[in-house]
Amino acid sequence: MTASAAGVVGWTGADQAELDVLVWELVTRVPEHRRDCDLCARERAEGWPCARVTEAIEAVLAWRVRRALLSRAERLREEQADHETFTRVPRFSRGPVEPFVGSEPGAA
Ligand SMILES: [Zn+2]
C-alpha cells in the first residue's frame, strides 16, 4: 500500500479531482460573495471573512477529511477481499479425482 501525492493512503485521482473542484469554487466564489456581503464589508478592514465564508471553508476541509477516511477504508476493503480470494483456493485435494463421465452442458 502506498500513500498518494497528497500523503493520504488510498487517496485517488478522482478524490483529488473532486477536491480541486471544491477549492476552485471557493477561490472563485468567495471574492464574489465578499464584494456583495455587508458583514464581509464590515470585517474587510481586518481581513476576516463573515461566518458564511468561514462555514464554506470548513465544509471543504471537513469533506476532505471524510473523503480521505472513506477512500482509505475502501482501499483496505479491496485489499482484504483480494487476500481472501487468494487464500480461499484449497491447498489439498480430499481424495482421488473422479474422471469426468458424461457430456459438457449444452453438448449434443
Ligand atoms: Zn460575507
Write the layout of secondary structure elements.
Layout: H1 13-36, H2 38-43, H3 51-87
Helix pairs in contact: 1-3
The structure holds zinc ion.
How far the N terminus sits from the C terminus, by CA atoms, comes to 50 Å
Hetero ligands: zinc ion
Largest sheet, strands/sense/barrel:
none
Runs in which pLDDT lies below 50 for 5 or more consecutive residues are none
**Kindly state the mean pLDDT as a whole number?**
83
Instruction: Determine the number of helices (DSSP H or I, runs of at least 4 residues).
Output: 3
Summarize the structure in words.
With 108 residues, this protein is mainly alpha-helical. The chain has a domain of 74 residues. α1 runs antiparallel to α3. It starts with 12 loop residues before the first helix and ends in a 21-residue tail after the last helix. The mean pLDDT is 83. Bound molecules: zinc ion (ZN). Zinc ion (ZN) binds next to α1, α2 and α3.
Briefly summarize what is shown.
The protein is an all-alpha fold and 108 residues long. It has helices spanning 13-36, 38-43, 51-87. Helix 1 (13-36) runs antiparallel to helix 3 (51-87).
Key features of this structure:
rod-shaped, single chain, binds zinc ion
